[in-house]
Amino acid sequence: xxxxxxxxxPRWLRFVLITIALAFLAVNLALPLAxxxxxxxxxxxxxxxxxxxxxxxxxxxxxxxxxAAIAVPLNIVFGLTxxxxxxxxxFPGKSLLIxxxxxxxxxxxxxxxxxxxxxxxxxxxAGPWLRDHDIRIVFAVPGIVLATTFVTFPFVARELIPLMxxxxxxxxxxxxxxxxxxxxxxxRVTLPNIRWGLxxxxxxxxxxxxxxxxxxxxxxxxxxxxxNTLPLHIEILYNEYNYVAAFxxxxxxxxxxxxTLVAKSLLEWRFGDSIAGGGH
Amino acid sequence: MRTILGLxxxxxxxxxxxxxxxxxxxxxxxxxxxxxxxxKDIDAAFxxxxxxxxxxxxxxxxxxxxxxxxxxxxxxxxEADVVTLALAYDIDEIAAKSQLLPATWQKRLPxxxxxxxxxxxxxxxxxxxxxxxxxxxxxxxxxAVITANPKSSGGARWNYLAAWGxxxxxxxxxxxxxxxxxxxxxxxxxxxxxxxATTTFVERGQGDVLLAWENEAYLATHEAGxxxxxxxxxxxxxxxxxxxxxxxxxxxxHGTTKVAEAYxxxxxxxxxxxxxxxxxxxPRDPAVAAxxxxxxKPLQMFTIDRNFGGWTRAQATxxxxxxxxxxxxxxxH
Lengths: 280, 333
Fold this sequence. Notes:
CATH superfamily of the largest domain in chain B: Periplasmic binding protein-like II
Radius of gyration of chain A: 23 Å
Strand content of chain B: 15-25%
Distance between the termini of chain B: 52 Å
Number of helices of chain B: 16
Number of helices of chain A: 14
CATH architecture of the largest domain in chain B: 3-Layer(aba) Sandwich
Structural class of chain B: alpha/beta
CATH architecture of the largest domain in chain A: Orthogonal Bundle
Shape of chain A: globular
Number of strands of chain A: 0
CATH class of the largest domain in chain B: Alpha Beta
Helix content of chain A: over 70%
Low-confidence stretches of chain B: 13-22
Helix content of chain B: 40-55%
CATH topology of the largest domain in chain A: MetI-like fold
Largest sheet of chain B: 8 strands, mixed
CATH class of the largest domain in chain A: Mainly Alpha
Oligomer: heterodimer
């Protein structure tokens, strides 16, 4: 045995376990991913390109990026405030706040969408008032942003809270005792301590914001070129027997996910120790 | 936090209204699933016609989904200028629940406000290996029938009523429920929308026969390349009338009443009727119908008004909670 072996299991068992894990990954991840790209390129590069530059596809892409560009910063602000409040202070209702943060993960996305229809729909609480003032929320971009923000708001906070709990308050207390203001403490001490965990949370949040289907489907209204995000556009193309175009646009979304995954792996590899606290 | 939220809303509203120029008009047609191809063609033709007649630029936005779901969205505030749905009941619901258009909407245009009609036919695999020729072949053991859930899909409600109508005509009313129950025994999966059911049959290769709108069956055959499926027209089926209506209050709010009305009236013109026939819907115009007579097999058709007392009655009896379909579904488990 070499020194690097961390267990005393026999060689064949390790071999079997590794094979099972790899086969599982191949069947569940690599194969579908390959199928997406194969389907996208089934009729050649020209068809692939035209599916992606088509106006409705470009509109969907723009909308998806716009929604992520609004939802993710909102959730960074929320995630930072919430985890700062939860880990650095004691206040009544703290554990309630922690469980509420997890709510969007346990609620079905369809329900997350319906909440906004009930609130802002024409038959909802604010519906008639909004109509009188010509403000559109559901079946328009604001509704999509709200639903996406709701679904993705746990991601940053969930990364940060365990990390900040583990780091404790001693650094901040030291900074305060040396005369730093609250803001200085946050910017100079807390933020550098959590920066990699924060980035990690932002990546996850962004991936979900771009990929969200259920909640967005409920509030979108499915107007072509206006309120269809990339995932909704893919479904429409698929339902129109336009399989190549559907897979072409899906490959874009998969590409975005892959970039996120690579960025995440790089972070883990480079800063594994400081992120580890955020994993659970 | 509040300013950011406000900013978000402002940005969103800006993003929504930015592309609209003063010189052009925009209308939104909220339609059901199988009309995607039809209205793509109609919209282009009408926009050109409108430009030629008035000089105005018209942008027609489309939204498609299950008919019931689309009606629900309009009720909840999706600001459709016109609705073109699968069945009158869904537009009745909009009139009743939101008062956006009068309850008498169906009297405003010719032919019950249905510029085209269709019927329910069978789509089978090439060579018809299970020998399916009429409704009674669907209840035989070992035949897998694909149809969507009538609770959520307008098309599937037509399927259900077509089967019921056949059974009543052949075996009498008391045995109709029995027949329909047997039929749903042969349904392995109930998709939520018509297009989903078509995809299940065509793409995933499930089932021996798909109950479908005639137009949907033709389209699927056409898209699949013509050598994978066959259309079987049963001896008798239901007259399916998908109606259209201007949503008065939305159009008035947008200042689009005139163009919305012109859009729907355009559907009855020979030019539009030809597009309708090309997209596999049965046209109303006799001259166009004669020209496309070979494309549509003649069959006996019964109407929902005569046989089921209209959509409101049919809905209450068959598809409401605790209705006949719920009883049938409960008996399957």
